[in-house]
Design a protein that fits this description.
Elements lengths: L2 H39 L4 H37 L2 H7 L4 H4 L1 H37 L8 E8 L2 E9 L4 E11 L2 E14 L4 E19 L12 E17 L20 H14 L4 H29 L7 H27 L5 H4 L2 H16 L3
Antiparallel strand pairs: 1-2, 2-3, 3-4, 4-5, 5-6
Helix pairs in contact: 1-2, 1-5, 2-5, 2-7, 2-8, 5-7, 6-7, 7-8, 7-10
Length: 378
Amino acid sequence: MKLLDKYILKQFLSTFFFVVVILLAVISVIDMTDKMDKFAKAELTAGQIFGYYMDFIPWIGSLVAPITIFIATVYVCSRMAGRTEVIAILSAGISFRRMMFPYFMGSFIVAILSFILNGWIIPNSNKSKLAFEVQYLKSKYYYDKQNVHIQVAPDVYLYMKSYNNTNNTGYQFTMERFEDNKLIEKLTANRIEWDTTKKKWTMRDWRIHRVQTIFEKTAGPETTLGADTGKAIITKDTLLSGTSKDTALVIHPKEFESDYRKYDGMTLNELTAYINTLRARGSTGIEVYEVEKYTRYTAPFTIFILVFMGVIVSSRKSRGGTGLQIALGFLLSFIFIIFFTLFRTFAENGSMPPQISVWIPNVIFGIISLIMYKYVPR
């Protein structure tokens, strides 16, 4: 690394972290002012509030990182251009492409750090942040869905007419198990209750109906002819019932709790496993979690593209000074946010595949950056 690279990299990273700290301080003060009434109403201690913002700050920092690094790039490069440093660098025989190297080196450091934080570290801290918000800042959540259908395995289906998340009780419960598209077991219960001590479900007024195929033989006068095989199918019905029985079902009460920004508290591994579970169950609303997963993978590329565009926009000395270039940087940041929000909404509504929608803003701004690199004078 040459002296010039160290000089630019130092200015670039120090400006980036300084801007992040300033933004976090401003956002935290505004957020605290907005929530102070709720804190007072919940009678929270200073320690509880402080703990909440220790989780809040990393989360909001990860959100503003891509835009912050773009603003830092524009600021540093425009200052260098204003002090004629860019002209001196190019006049010394260093190509513009070579001059961008320290910027990309800095963006690589931020991108890797951001990917690790967003993928594993921040989601774990978000778990307590989300729990705090649900308990103290949001209205009490009541599960109000009716006629709940859940596919818990390829051939196993659950049904509940209703569920009360206050006492963790499901009503009019049914579980059906199929084999070769034939119903082989049906479990019904008037209600199921979660036992917090045993960590199991207790069925009340339950009944199990099993249909078992004993053997098959050639159709005779006293047998029933199978539709596809031409053979008689001999079956045996078993019926069991009782008033109370403990059982281990694959569902858990937490699945009926508030799903407010649930994806924020999931690591990449947990997101992938949860998406696979929802897909196996045939659930709706998977797109929200898929968008979050793919967004975390595209974020590092977003940082590279914004840094590339920032260097191009601000590398030319302007008569209006650095203020005009910084204002242009804010404008482009605003446009990028609009594009990102727009296509994310499309994906979450099912109008566009999530793995495609999250890449569209990067592709659009990447193409714009390449056009600017080719035609904008520097």
